Amino acid sequence: MSTTGASDGFVPPTYPYDRLEPLEVRASALPGGLVDLSVGTPCDPPPPAVVAALGSSGAERGYPSGAGSPRLIDAARGWMERRFGVGTSRADVAACVGTKELVAGMPHWLRLRRPDRDTVLYPAVSYPTYAMGAVLAGCRAVPVPARPDGTLAIEDVAQADAERALCVWVNSPANPTGRLDDLAAAARFGRAHDVPVLSDECYAEFTWHGTPKTILEHGLDGVLAVHSISKRSNCAGLRVGFYAGDPELVSYLRELRRHAGLMVPGPVQLAGAVALEDDEHVERQRERYAERLERAAQILGRLGVAVDRPGGGFYLWVRAPDALPLADEEPGSDEGAEWRLARQLATHAGALVSPGELYGPAGAGCVRVALVQPMERLELVADRLERALDSARAVSGSERRESAGNAPAR
Ligand SMILES: Cc1ncc(COP(=O)(O)O)c(C=O)c1O
Rounded CA gap, 96 and 207, in Å? Predict the structure, then answer.
């Protein structure tokens, strides 16, 4: 008998990206190694001033502020003012240890406040942690479907689900699809149904169609914007983000999180502030992603994959074709088209990409390509694919000649 009682309790599901391990092994076996386009982890350098701040904060000895130091909070406020033209007070903003812990923990904390509700609404094709947060809190995770253009069909949420909802997550620009959503409509939905709208905006500065948007432009009442320096400043390793919006909700979360000991380390708070005080490095990062998105679209085009440019973010979200012009070493396999495309890209190009199913069942049939590798690694993928296409053409040419040679004489 287990002394921990673990035998019939919750068993964490396989971590989504661990499912890619067999493909990673294939891709790594190619000369030149793996080109990892799966996880959205930045590869480019953080601003040197941010790294320097880590060593000069003098903040190692004492406990840091759980809510965020005045400098970090003011840096976040200044950034929102510059980027979106939105003014906030210090009481409207608080720090988090990167945004993933906030996303994962939110349903649990909201349920403590509203035990009469048990449902988390989230985009059907999305960052997996929205649904996982619901699971970890013992809540219902109810996906909100997408319209044909990929935007959130929030008006399709059933009244019964809205009445039970602790929160609704929106994410614009969206991971993985790159879609841009109507944040005003999301705010209206939340207010009409008394459901907090949690707007994950960590890709806001990589908006390609139009200017960056925040839900806070439509008022703070009943909404939270969630931001991170992980993507904008290439600082995913530091673990710092913030949430801002409805002062009553911010105050509840700030107090609860203090009790739970959720604090951004002091040196990281200073580094986060330095990152948010500067926009110039983000401009350079935008150029890098724009260039890579364009090149990756061309490369995938060589395989006959149709690519729509994203409205924002640094991912390409593409439909996997039923057949590819490459030799298939496992023909007839009953894997979905997205796993087949991912397998062939790993095998022939050494590129690891994410099958869309990792972002919910509605993502099946699509693949996400994260442009988090430098251009020279993308060129390696391109070269390998050209070679694979050449040899597939040579094989099919010789098969055609052979079958013509075997054709019965008329
Ligand atoms: C949509 C979205 N939200 C939140 C996160 C978490 O970012 P972090 O915890 O680094 O702030 C990610 C990371 O990939 C993401 O894609």
Answer: 23
Q: Say yes or no: CB of residue 200 within 6 Å of ligand 1.
A: yes
Looking at domain 48-277, its CATH architecture is 3-Layer(aba) Sandwich (3.40)
> Is 239:272 a contact under the CB 8 Å cutoff?
no
The predicted structure's pLDDT at residue 288: 98
Q: Same CATH fold, 48-277 and 16-45+281-397?
A: no
H or E, element range at 241: strand 241-245
pTM above 0.85, yes or no: yes
Q: Output the pLDDT for position 3.
A: 60
Q: 194: how many CB neighbours lie within 10 A of its CB? A: 12
Decide yes or no: CATH 1.20.1250.20 for domain 16-45+281-397: no
Domain spans in the chain, listed from the N-terminal domain onward: 16-45+281-397, 48-277
228 close to ligand 1 (CB < 6 Angstrom): yes
Run of H or E including 171: strand 165-171
**Total number of residues shown for the chain:** 410
Cα separations (Å) of 133 from 37, 137, 315?
A: 25, 6, 23
DSSP 253-302: HHHHHHHTT----HHHHHHHHHHHT--HHHHHHHHHHHHHHHHHHHHHHT
Residue of the CA atom closest to atom 5 of ligand 1: 100
Separation of CA 233 and ligand 1 centre (Å): 13
Q: What is the pLDDT of residue 407?
A: 57
Structure tokens at 237: 């390793």
Q: Which of 180, 397, 212 is nearest to 286 (CA)?
A: 212
Could you tell me if 273 and 69 are in contact, meaning their C-beta atoms sit under 8 angstroms apart? yes
Q: What is the dihedral of CA 332, 337, 342, 346, to 10 degrees?
A: 30
For the chain, list residues with pLDDT below 50: 1, 409-410
Sheet holding 366-370, edge to edge: 315-319, 366-370, 354-355
The confidence score (pLDDT) of residue 396 equals 73
Contact 372, 42 (CB under 8 A): yes
**Minimum CA distance residue for ligand 1 atom 12:** 100
Residue 336, SS3 per DSSP? coil
28 φψ region: left (φ > 0), alpha (ψ -120 to 50), beta (else): alpha
Ligand 1 midpoint to CA 57 (Å): 26
